[in-house]
């Protein structure tokens, strides 16, 4: 209600104020005081004066700065008693009676090492009867190509999650077991996959 009242009162009031200001401005322009046309215009003359410089006198006034002399070299020491002894310390190398084989530090043989482990998806059908944290223990073999095979569930806290765990392990990739520079099967790898519900 108040906005309609402001609209009907404010718009005509604004029109009246605008027309009044317009008429006042027109009257002021009509009765403008005429400046004395006889007044002389202000003449300004700006000239720049260039001073000629004598290059010969400028060169004579310029003096190069004097540089500091470098410090003198340190005095030479000719006294032989001031020189250090170069004999060093003489000692015998101790003998250690131990039969050690430290090897080269490089062992080319290694066990299968995981490269890619894709975490399993929590199945929606299992969320209703699952606790906050469930685990599935699986056992599998690693081929010489690094693929997982013969996947079996060893122990589980919720059998509904077994299929999701085995499908996840199927996509894992391993660096195969190396024996004598040859890729070998790695059998009986066991791991525990944990399923956690995020709240």
TrEMBL record:
GO BP field: transmembrane transport
Pro residues: bias regions: 68-77
Region (Disordered): 62-87
Transmembrane segments: 6-29
Family matches, as SUPFAM superfamilies: TolA/TonB C-terminal domain
Domain of life: Bacteria
Entry keywords, A to Z: Membrane, Transmembrane, Transmembrane helix
The TonB C-terminal domain, residue ranges: 107-199
Transmembrane in keyword set: yes
Alphabetical list of Pfam families matching this protein: TonB_C
Name listed for the protein in its UniProt record: Energy transducer TonB
Species assigned in the record: Hyphococcus flavus
């Amino acid at each position: 209600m108040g906005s309609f009242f402001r609209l009907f009162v404010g718009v005509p009031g604004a029109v009246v104020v605008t027309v009044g200001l317009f008429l006042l401005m027109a009257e002021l322009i009509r009765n403008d005081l005429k400046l004395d046309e006889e007044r002389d215009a202000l003449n300004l003359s700006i000239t720049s004066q260039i001073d000629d410089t004598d290059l010969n006198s400028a060169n004579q006034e310029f003096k190069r700065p004097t540089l500091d002399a470098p410090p003198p070299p340190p005095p030479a020491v000719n006294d032989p008693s001031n020189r250090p002894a170069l004999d060093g310390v003489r000692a015998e190398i101790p003998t250690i009676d131990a039969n050690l084989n430290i090897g080269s530090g490089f062992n080319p043989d290694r066990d299968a090492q995981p490269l890619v482990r894709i975490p399993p998806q929590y199945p929606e059908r299992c969320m209703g009867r699952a606790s906050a944290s469930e685990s599935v223990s699986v056992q599998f073999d690693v081929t010489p190509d690094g693929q997982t095979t013969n996947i079996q569930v060893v122990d589980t806290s919720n059998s509904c999650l077994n299929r999701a765990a085995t499908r996840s392990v199927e996509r894992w990739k391993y660096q195969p077991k190396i024996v004598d520079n040859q890729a070998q099967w790695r059998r009986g790898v066991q791991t525990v996959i944990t399923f956690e519900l995020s709240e």
